[in-house]
Design brief:
This protein has ten helices and no strands. By secondary structure, the protein is an all-alpha fold. It is 68% helix and 0% strand. Helix 3 packs across helix 7 and helix 4 packs across helix 9. The chain has one domain: Glycerol uptake facilitator protein.
Length: 245
């Protein structure tokens, strides 16, 4: 498997299982409906575990454009590969979102609330305040990327960059899954913690074109927050890492 193929597959599983837990806990007549935030955060953490396990040996398991950009800014990933990784992550995220819809199609039909339907695809603010929402995504992604950068540093001291693929997989699947659960439980209550532009934008695009009855709008006016916030957080993490390394 090539690194690009691994990013597609890893991100696909991330969204299939992460979006799936949102659908299971939100949509009408799903067995998990009403299970709550704990199940959602654990579900996303386990989705990350699976995505990293699949992609890690081949691509380093970025499965997140913010991770890709953060590593490149810190000098640990080639800028020439960045567009290919991000494109692969977007494709994987969109395929994952479509598959969640196919699995839960009857439940989307049974759910009248358009906000509930949209929330299984993409994030939204608990309290709409764009600067504050942007800050929430920035801080959550800052925590994710800075930890990844520090955990990859010892590996780089022993091996050349060309010999190892860095990413979330550098932490190991279980540690990075626990990190994402921690971020979700502690910081996710404001925006739903996208902390990943592909995780939000890919499914949001899919939601806008799928034939879901009574689905409402895609909230494009908010869509920049879970894209630019994580990128800014990744950039801040890279700056801090370089300043103290």
């Amino acid at each position: 498997m090539t690194p690009v193929e691994a990013e597609v597959l890893g991100t696909f599983f991330l969204i299939l299982l992460g979006g799936g837990v949102c659908a299971n806990t939100t949509l009408n007549r799903a067995y998990g409906q009403g299970a709550g935030w704990l199940v959602v955060t654990l579900g996303w953490g386990l989705a990350v575990f699976v995505g990293v396990s699949v992609a890690g040996p081949y691509s380093g398991a970025h499965i997140n454009p913010a991770v890709t950009v953060g590593l490149a800014l810190a000098g640990k990933f080639s800028w020439s590969e960045v567009p290919f990784y991000i494109a692969a992550q977007m494709v994987g995220a969109m395929l994952g979102a479509v598959t969640v819809w196919l699995v839960y199609r009857d439940h989307y039909i049974a759910t009248p609330d358009p906000d509930a339907k949209r929330g299984t695809f993409c994030t939204g603010p608990a309290i709409a305040n764009a600067p504050q929402n942007f800050l929430s995504e920035l801080v959550g992604t800052f925590a994710l990327v800075l930890v990844v950068l520090y955990f990859t540093e010892p590996t780089l001291q022993a091996q050349e960059l060309s010999e190892v693929r860095l990413g979330l997989g550098s932490l190991g699947a279980l540690p990075v899954a626990l990190l994402v659960v921690s971020i979700g439980m502690s910081l996710g209550g404001t925006t739903g913690y996208a902390i990943n532009p592909a995780r939000d934008l890919g499914p949001r695009i899919v939601y806008s074109v799928l034939p879901i009855p009574d689905k409402g709008g895609s909230q494009w006016s908010y869509a920049w927050v879970p894209v630019l916030g994580p990128v800014a957080g990744a950039a801040a993490a890279a700056v801090v890492f370089l300043a103290f390394s």
